[in-house]
Specification:
This protein has 145 residues and is α+β, with helices and mostly antiparallel strands. It has one domain. The chain is 22% helix and 34% strand. Strands 1, 2, 3, 4, 5, 6, 7, 8 and 9 form a nine-stranded antiparallel beta sheet that branches. The longest helix has 18 residues. The N and C termini lie far apart (60 Å).
């Protein structure tokens, strides 16, 4: 009888819906004239807050212009964070999607703790923005170095 209870618990655990990781991730990303500053926060109830202001068309910008753009994005990210409403996503243990949606919105790598935001700008393919786990958000989301 006891083995039936153990087997039933194992089956139920295997069939349970994966829970999203709880924590905070942030990052700054620049490629092909596009700059992005991003934050993600997932609470204990699985609700997700995301903000990712971007600037496009920065090809050929001088280094001092890029620094100004990065500072502007970082300020926007920090300044608007309190207005970001939490929302629910479908999560399969690796990929986050809008409820009932198909397109990946974020990809979680449990082994490394990295979250990758899939950012859709216009009609372009998704731009993968790697985010690093942080205990608290920073004024500047770009990694040092």
């Amino acid at each position: 009888m006891r083995w039936i209870v153990v087997l039933l618990c194992a089956v139920l655990a295997a069939c349970s819906k994966p829970q999203p990781p709880v924590g905070r991730w942030e990052g700054g990303y620049m490629t092909d004239g596009t700059l992005v500053a991003a934050r993600v926060e997932i609470g204990p109830g699985g609700l997700v807050r995301i903000s990712a202001p971007d600037i496009t068309g920065a090809q050929g910008a001088r280094p001092e212009q890029l620094e100004q753009m990065r500072a502007r994005l970082a300020a926007a990210l920090a300044g608007d964070w309190d207005t970001v409403a939490p929302r629910r996503f479908d999560f399969d243990g690796k990929t986050f999607r809008k409820p009932g949606g198909v397109a990946p919105q974020m990809v979680w790598d449990k082994r490394t703790g990295q979250m990758t935001l899939q950012l859709y700008i216009g009609a372009n393919p998704a731009l993968p923005v790697p985010l690093r786990p942080v205990p608290a958000f920073h004024d500047d989301p770009w990694p040092a170095g």
